Amino acid sequence: MHWLFEPGFFSSHAVHVACVIGSIVAVVSGVVGVFTVVRGQSFAGHSLADVATAGGSGAFLVGISPLFGFVAGGVVGAGAMEMIGVRRARGRDLATGIVLGASIGLAALFLYLGTTRSSTTGASQQILFGSIFSTVSSTVPIVAVFSVVCLGIMALVHRPLLLSSVSTDMAAARGVPVRVVGLLYMLALALAVGLSSLAIGAILSTALLIGPAAIALRLTRRIGWAIVAACLCGVGAVLLGVLLAYDSYDWSSTHAYWPVSFFIVVIIFLGYLATELPFLRAARTPRRQGEPAAPGAGR
Amino acid sequence: MTDPDHPQVAPRELLAVEGISVSLSGRQILDNVTFGVRAGEFTGLIGSNGAGKTTLLRVILGLQRPSAGRVLVLGAPRRQHTRSMGYVPQKILLDPDMPLRARDLVALGIDGNRFGFPTASKQCREAVDEMLHAVGAESFSDARVGILSGGEQQRVLIAHALIGRPQLLLLDEPLANLDLKSGQEVVALLDRIADEQQIAILLSAHEMNPLLPVMDRIVYLAGGRAASGTTEEVVRDEVLSALYGYEVHVHTLHGRIVVVAGPMEETELPPDPTLRAV
Description:
The structure holds 2 protein chains of 2 kinds.
Chain A: H1 13-38, H2 42-62, H3 66-84, H4 86-91, H5 93-118, H6 122-129, H7 139-166, H8 168-173, H9 178-200, H10 205-217, H11 223-247, H12 260-274, H13 278-284
Chain B: E1 13-24, E2 27-38, E3 42-46, H1 53-61, E4 68-73, E5 76-77, E6 85-88, H2 102-111, H3 122-134, H4 150-162, E7 168-171, H5 180-197, E8 200-205, E9 217-222, E10 225-229, H6 231-234, H7 237-244, E11 248-253, E12 256-261, H8 264-267, H9 273-276
Parallel strand pairs in B: 3-8, 3-9, 6-7, 7-8
Antiparallel strand pairs in B: 1-2, 1-4, 4-5, 9-10, 11-12
Helix pairs in contact in B: 2-3, 2-4, 3-4
């Protein structure tokens, strides 16, 4: 097994922290991600990630844990989007694009100032593309608290959220406070984006959010199973990514660890491609008993 | 027309729409619309596209604030009665990949408005199965809602709305996206359910003919104004001309009602007796 598990993998403290944080984050991303894909709001996730980039860079500049910056940026972005209206924000693509471009520009300034002051060149890499190996173990409790809050929100709102994803009017007619539910969901999304940014970087955070969910939704017809599958896919991708990154130290003569986020994103991408394989396609082909749809009816 | 009696005097009045006016961005959509729906009745809300049918339904549901007038449910302001109304929107746009089976959507009719974890009981599952059977949706109950045809989706949405045991079912243009046969089936289904469960139905449509066999009362919307009563009372030259604000004529062709505009001289039909045969 030495060819797979390099010596020291199981005893490395950095690997332990990375596996714990990565798994927690993957579970949170799986749960929130399924609803994000179902609601067609991966755009919102991307936007929050851009604002989170600015937040994380700002946190680095003032010298606190980037996680706080990621989450603060995400929450501010979520509040702003809710005020404009998520659908209107998407419709106004020019204004939205300029605002999101500005947040990345802000991130560029913060990273430049921070790097020149502390002369730690790894910071840009860490904020933008993540560096789960260099996360200190004291971050674990904070990650756990944010995750519990996020999962708690999702547990609270999941049914009204699902109903308002089908039709906001139907939900409102049933007495669902649609705006409150939407706001709580955006808060959960901001937390998930922040946590995901910590694991694989702000720029890549939506890959962990959307990817496993998209794979899961191709495999099952039931939302409960989709959430379970998304969590498993995400955790699998993160753990495998950590393992491969650890192994990569010996892959080239320069002896350097390749970025974990590279492996995670590639594994998710390959997983998504795999759902196009014939035997997996068969599993998601809608099974229908009875007669086919009446000719000319509907869709 | 509804008499403005106190609700205690007319306890059978399930829904009272009183003098509803709506202006959206300066344009008057509804102008002093008044009518009532009684328990167990099938009411057709008829009007052409843009007549204000959807706006009126949204006011009744409390999704749109009227600029004047009020909506009473069982004699009380509607806010306290969200459970007494079921709603079927005109169209839902669901991705075929959305992991929501027909039975899941119906189950959301029981507890979709509740926060926290579900209390998925055997009782709930049985109620869902029963309702899927009642609307004839068993054969596709495990299929994703997004892949169903328009008629199948209508059945599932009707089951979703009915499982909360409402006293009034509101449907926004349920026949608009259906072929003729599916439309007939949905109308027959609604008529049967209204009878069996003593539910009042208010259904909007731009075409009254498919509803003529089942409609107890009609609310005719034109130019933001409404006239209501039985079909014979409402669908007449004088009533509709007053509503439209210009001369219209009602003709009956093979048992179907056609409303045409303009003076009689120009659009007069030939006195062919076969055309008048019912």
